[in-house]
Amino acid sequence: MSGDQEAVVLDTERTVNWVAGPGAHEALRPEIVLGFHGLCLVKPVDDDDWYMGSLYDDGSIDCWAAYGDLYEALRGL
Question: How many structural domains are present in the chain?
């Protein structure tokens, strides 16, 4: 759906935060992490939503958008 031929499945052993606003960070426990160059889609454990975020050089991810399903999230890329 994304059309990205270089998308990869990434290791879930990384720091992932939901950045809802200034000073408001919530840790997410990833079940699935999909990498699209500098962007990622994260499906947390015990949550049906998909979160989009930025992948940093240290492997951590800050998510700043949420989608109700994978199709929606892929279209958001």
Answer: 1
What is the rounded CA–CA span in Å between residue 45 and residue 56? Answer: 21
Alpha-carbon Rg for the chain in angstroms: 11
Q: Does residue 1 belong to any structural domain of this protein?
A: no
Query: Is the pTM higher than 0.90?
Result: no
Q: What is the mean pLDDT of residues 48-60?
A: 96
With H, G, I as helix, E, B as strand and everything else as coil, classify residue 7: coil
**Is 11 a domain residue?**
yes
13 part of a folded domain: yes
